[in-house]
Design the sequence.
């Protein structure tokens, strides 16, 4: 009787110990990282502000106000002041944040899609196909980034959506290298062999067994690609090639603010602060994710 | 070693050839032409201009002509700057970018490696936290924010340094642009060095070195640093190429006659030959610096065999 009880007790204990998957562990480690958690909260707030904020500001972002030019912050109802055309900085900042975050999301998705497909295909097929595909990446790597972007821009015009896509279409190279490297280590593992033995086609193996298993490093790299993309758009805007006025992005606001910084320093300071805060959040989250998913470097 | 270098240089030729091919056809596929003016050229004049530059021939033929020119070391005339060849433009503007880039890389390496080592030796201490906080900031603040702020503070308000201009590369004119270029690199280099050092300091051979009573300075200088900067070497290759071919933002803000600005203007004006010339320089530098990085790698890590 007592034996029976203890045996069932053991079984109950076993049931209580739930298996911890790799992702459970990673999430636990991520949640223990204060900088990463704080960054996620701040970033969440920024995203919410960018999504809702433009509807709540008292002035539209493109409303020109001849009598309120270069008003300093906290005057005439302009919380953050106005620019050279009397447009409300707060409204422009919120719209700019929205545009920059959208660029980050869209361009990164494009680079993710191309990079993962390209890298996984090259890595899985191997041989001559791999050689050709990765040599192509090498060649593109050797071309200056700005060369592509300018050519894509002049070919497709400065349509805002195309700027997003153009940046993404340039940023996929590193992603494809990471994915290929991961695929090479994965493709000879037992579970892939098992899938092959079960008669699964190559496309299905890559899509259902390889790609889900290489997501760890990819997720980390994505959080580092988003700030890179936001920066890239800002550089383009700074050169006058990015988002066109009256639309705003963090880059155009900073570029404009830098021109008028001696007369109206707030035009440079506030957009720079928002930009730095956004990029810092992504960097901290990226670092946290890397430590969480790949703990060997801690 | 020599055979390795020779083989790598041989492999670089087809890569360079592919780069030229891709860039040539991409450039030509873009709409617009170098001879688009505000006032439209009459068809006769346009035909003459095109004939002068051999652009009336079919595209494949122009491509072959161009390749033949490159093989002879002739990058052709600029299509926008009359009576200047591409080589003239490169010779005039390249030294500026080279000087800026090399100074920035040198300063960034020295400062970045020192900061990284200090941070790693005091891991999780206040010095480490400070260095890492600065490093995060350095990565996150774009150059087009630091540059105007430095100009406003140090040059305009305090008047210590000139706000802009090249002035034949006089030292005061170099300080601010080099600082702006070096800051983000310092951030990245110190992070890479710190990560490398922390990993290496846990290695068995460092424990051995400690056990035989070597001083901490000797351990760091002679044993740890050498292995710790390996990841840095592979980073510095492409980073170097990017920096010494010119940073358009810095050149624009400080009004410097470097390559970066030329590159953007030429691409926008479809000055095909100038853009191609710069693409070739950039690609050749990337290939060369990657080779140098591999050689350095082998020199630093005796386990690496060049094959």
Sequence:
């Amino acid at each position: 009787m007592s034996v029976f009880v203890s045996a069932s007790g053991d079984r109950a204990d076993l049931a209580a110990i739930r298996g911890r998957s790799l992702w459970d562990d990673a999430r636990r480690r991520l949640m223990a990282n204060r900088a990463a958690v704080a960054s996620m909260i701040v970033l969440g707030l920024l995203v919410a502000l960018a999504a809702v904020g433009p509807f709540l500001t008292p002035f539209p972002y493109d409303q020109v106000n001849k009598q309120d030019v270069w008003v300093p912050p906290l005057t005439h109802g302009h919380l953050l002041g106005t620019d050279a055309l009397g447009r409300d900085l707060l409204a422009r900042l919120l719209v700019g944040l929205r545009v920059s975050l959208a660029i980050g999301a869209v361009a990164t998705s494009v680079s993710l899609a191309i990079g993962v497909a390209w890298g996984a295909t090259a890595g899985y097929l191997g041989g001559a196909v791999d050689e050709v595909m990765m040599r192509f990446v090498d060649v593109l790597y050797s071309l200056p980034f700005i060369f592509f972007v300018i050519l894509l821009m002049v070919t497709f015009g400065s349509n805002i959506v195309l700027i997003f896509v153009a940046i993404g279409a340039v940023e996929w190279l590193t992603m494809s290298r990471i994915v290929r490297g991961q695929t090479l280590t994965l493709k000879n593992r037992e579970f892939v062999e098992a899938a092959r033995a079960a008669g699964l086609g190559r496309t299905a193996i890559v899509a259902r067994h390889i790609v889900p298993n290489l997501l760890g490093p990819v997720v980390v790299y994505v959080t580092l690609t988003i700030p890179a993309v936001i920066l890239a758009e800002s550089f383009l805007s700074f050169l006058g090639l990015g988002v066109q006025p009256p639309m705003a992005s963090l880059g155009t606001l900073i570029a404009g603010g830098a021109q008028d910084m001696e007369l109206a320093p707030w035009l440079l300071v506030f957009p720079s602060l928002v930009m730095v805060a956004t990029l810092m959040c992504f960097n901290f989250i990226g670092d946290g994710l890397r430590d969480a998913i790949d703990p060997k470097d801690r | 070693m020599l055979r390795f270098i020779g083989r790598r240089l041989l492999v670089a030729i087809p890569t360079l050839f592919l780069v030229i091919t891709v860039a040539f056809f991409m450039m030509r596929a873009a709409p617009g032409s170098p001879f688009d003016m505000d006032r439209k050229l009459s068809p006769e004049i346009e035909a003459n201009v095109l004939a002068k530059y051999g652009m009336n021939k079919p595209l494949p033929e122009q491509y072959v002509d161009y390749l033949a020119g490159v093989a002879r070391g002739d990058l052709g005339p600029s299509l926008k700057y009359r009576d200047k060849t591409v080589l003239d433009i490169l010779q005039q503007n390249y030294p500026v970018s080279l000087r800026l880039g090399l100074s920035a890389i040198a300063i960034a390496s020295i400062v970045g490696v020192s900061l990284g080592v200090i941070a790693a030796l005091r891991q999780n201490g206040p010095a480490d936290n400070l260095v890492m906080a600065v490093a995060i900031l350095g990565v996150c603040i774009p150059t087009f924010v630091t540059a105007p702020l430095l100009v406003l503070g140090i040059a305009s308000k305090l008047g210590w340094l000139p706000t802009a201009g090249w002035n034949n590369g006089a030292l005061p004119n170099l300080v601010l642009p080099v600082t702006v270029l070096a800051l983000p690199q310092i951030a990245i280099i110190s992070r890479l060095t710190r990560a490398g050092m922390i990993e290496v300091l846990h290695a068995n051979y460092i424990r051995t070195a400690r056990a035989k009573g070597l001083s901490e300075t000797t351990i760091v200088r002679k044993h740890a640093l050498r292995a710790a900067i390996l990841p840095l070497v592979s980073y510095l290759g492409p980073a170097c190429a990017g920096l010494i071919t010119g940073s358009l933002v810095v050149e624009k803000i400080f009004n410097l006659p470097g390559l970066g600005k030329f590159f953007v203007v030429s691409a926008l004006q479809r000055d095909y030959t100038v853009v191609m010339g710069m693409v070739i320089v950039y690609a050749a530098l990337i290939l060369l610096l990657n080779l140098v990085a591999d050689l350095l790698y082998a020199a630093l890590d005796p386990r690496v065999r060049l094959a």
Remarks:
- The interface with chain A takes residues 15-16, 18-19, 22-23, 26-27, 29-32, 136-137, 139-142, 144-145, 147-149, 152, 156, 195, 198-199, 238, 245, 248-249, 252-253, 263-264, 267-268, 275, 278-279, 282-283, 286-287 of chain B (CB under 8 Å).
